[in-house]
Write a structure and sequence with these properties.
Shape: globular
Strand content: under 5%
Largest sheet: 2 strands, antiparallel
Structural class: mainly alpha
Strand order of the largest sheet: 1-2
Length: 401
C-alpha cells in the first residue's frame, strides 16, 4: 500500500546513506500520532507525524481534490511548494522550510516526482514544478531508471513515479527508461511470469512483486497517478517467445495479466511482512485496479474494485489522506463515483483531513457574514465539493507476493 511503500522507501534510503532511522508504518492498526512537542503545519493534510511522508501525502491529497474539480486551499498548495529545496528537489518533510537544505536533508525522487504532479495539477507554481523536473532529469541513472535517492540503484517504483511526473510536465527523460522496465519483466514461462520485479537481486534474479507490477504497468503506459480507463486492449499475456525485448505495450499487458490472475480468486492482493500472517493488502489492491483500468481491463478489475468497496473504507479511515486518495484514484480509473464508495463519501472524508478547499472556505465566509448558524456552516464546510467530480492518486520498496 502507498503508506507502506513510503516507509520502505525511507528504509531503502537509510541503507544508502548509512543512518539508522526508525520507520513510521501505517498499518491497519492506525497511523502514528505526532509527538507531544510536534506542531503540525496548518496547511498539511493528515494528523500523523509527517516526518516520512509529509510531501507524499500532501501531493496525493491535492491531486485528488483537483481531479475532483475541487480547488485546494491556497495554504495547502503553498505549503507543498514551500517544501522545495533550492536545487529543485523535495525531501519527505522539512520541519523548517526557511532553513537551507544541507547534507542532513535527504531529498528523494519519489517525493519530488509526486510534488511535480501535484503542482502541475493545481497550477500557480509552474517555476517550482519545472525546477523539480530539471532535478529529476539530472539524477537519472545510466540504465535509464531512477532510484529512491540520487545515485541509488534504479527500482521499478521510483522509475514509475518519475515517469508520471515527466508525463504531467509534458516532457521526457534524456534516456529512455522503458528498456529497463522490459528487462525487469519476469518471463512468462517462469514463476510469476508477466509481473515486474522491484529490482533484480544480487544474482540478477527477478522476483514477481505486485506493487512494482502495478507501478510498472502505469509507467509502461506513460501514465501518472491520475488516469482514467484506457481503450480496451487484447486480454491475456503477450508471450510471443521471439526472443526480442518486450515493447512498452507488452510490458503493460503482461503486468496487467499477472495482476488479474493474482486477484481472480479472492478479489484482492495480500501482504506478506516478515514474521506476520498474510493479510489483505488494500493499497496494493487499489493500485492494481488502477493499473488494470489504465490498460483497459475494467472487466477484470471489477471484482477487486467491488472487494475494496466492501472492505476498504475502514482501512482508509485509519490510515488517512494517502489511503483515501488511493481509493479515490481507483474509483476514478474505473469510472465509478467516489462519493458513494460502498456507502462512504471518500471526497468528504479526504477534505475533512486538512484545510477546507477554496470553494468550501468561501461559502463558509459568506454564510458567516450573512449570519448563518454555526452548525450549518460546519456542515457545508464538510460537504462542499460533493457534486463536482473526483480523483486522486501514488511509492516504495515493498512486499512480494
Amino acid at each position: 500500500m502507498t503508506v507502506l511503500r513510503r516507509t520502505a522507501g525511507v528504509l531503502a534510503a537509510t541503507a544508502v546513506i548509512g543512518t539508522a532511522t526508525p520507520a513510521t508504518t501505517a498499518l491497519a492498526a492506525g497511523t502514528p500520532s505526532p509527538s507531544a512537542s510536534a506542531v503540525l503545519p496548518s496547511g498539511l493534510y493528515g494528523g500523523s507525524d509527517p516526518k516520512y511522508d509529509g510531501v507524499w501525502r500532501q501531493s496525493l491529497a491535492l491531486l485528488a481534490q483537483r481531479a475532483a474539480g475541487v480547488s485546494p486551499a491556497a495554504k495547502a498548495v503553498d505549503w507543498l511548494a514551500g517544501q522545495q529545496c533550492a536545487d529543485g528537489a523535495f525531501a519527505a518533510f522539512r520541519a523548517d522550510p526557511a532553513a537551507a537544505c544541507d547534507t542532513k536533508v535527504t531529498v528523494d525522487t519519489n517525493s519530488t516526482a509526486a510534488a511535480v504532479q501535484a503542482l502541475k495539477a493545481t497550477g500557480g507554481h509552474a517555476a517550482a514544478a519545472d525546477k523539480a523536473v530539471t532535478w529529476l532529469k539530472s539524477v537519472q541513472n545510466k540504465d535509464g531508471g531512477w532510484g529512491y535517492t540520487q545515485g541509488s540503484p534504479s527500482d521499478t517504483n521510483s522509475t514509475g513515479v518519475v515517469i508520471g511526473a515527466l508525463a504531467a510536465a509534458g516532457t521526457s527523460a534524456d534516456r529512455s527508461p522503458y528498456d529497463l522496465l522490459a528487462k525487469w519483466s519476469v518471463p512468462c514461462g517462469q514463476d510469476g511470469g508477466g509481473a515486474l520485479a522491484y529490482q533484480p537481486d544480487k544474482q540478477g534474479k527477478l522476483t514477481a512483486n505486485a506493487d512494482a507490477t502495478a507501478a510498472g504497468v502505469l509507467a509502461a503506459l506513460g501514465k501518472g497517478f491520475v488516469t482514467t480507463a484506457g481503450k480496451a486492449r487484447a486480454e491475456g499475456p503477450a508471450c510471443a517467445g521471439s526472443g526480442k525485448a518486450l515493447s512498452r505495450a507488452e510490458v503493460a499487458r503482461n503486468g496487467a495479466a499477472y495482476l488479474a490472475a493474482a486477484m481472480s480468486g479472492t478479489g484482492h492482493l495480500v501482504s506478506a511482512l516478515a514474521g506476520a500472517k498474510p493479510q489483505p493488502d488494500y493499497g496494493n489492491t487499489a493500485d492494481a485496479v488502477v493499473a488494470m483500468a489504465a490498460q483497459g481491463w475494467t472487466k477484470q478489475a471489477g471484482k477487486p474494485y467491488a472487494w475494496l468497496e466492501a472492505h476498504a473504507a475502514r482501512w482508509a479511515e485509519q490510515n488517512g489522506p494517502a489511503a483515501y486518495a488511493e481509493l479515490i484514484l481507483a474509483a476514478h480509473a474505473m469510472g465509478a463515483d467516489p462519493r458513494d464508495f460502498g456507502g462512504t463519501n471518500l471526497v468528504t472524508a479526504l477534505n475533512a483531513t486538512g484545510p477546507a478547499p477554496r470553494a468550501a472556505a468561501a461559502k463558509h465566509a459568506a454564510e458567516k457574514k450573512s449570519g448563518s448558524g454555526v452548525w450549518w456552516i460546519v456542515g457545508t464546510g464538510l460537504v462542499a465539493g460533493i457534486g463536482i467530480g473526483f480523483l486522486f492518486s501514488g511509492r516504495r520498496k515493498q512486499r512480494q507476493l
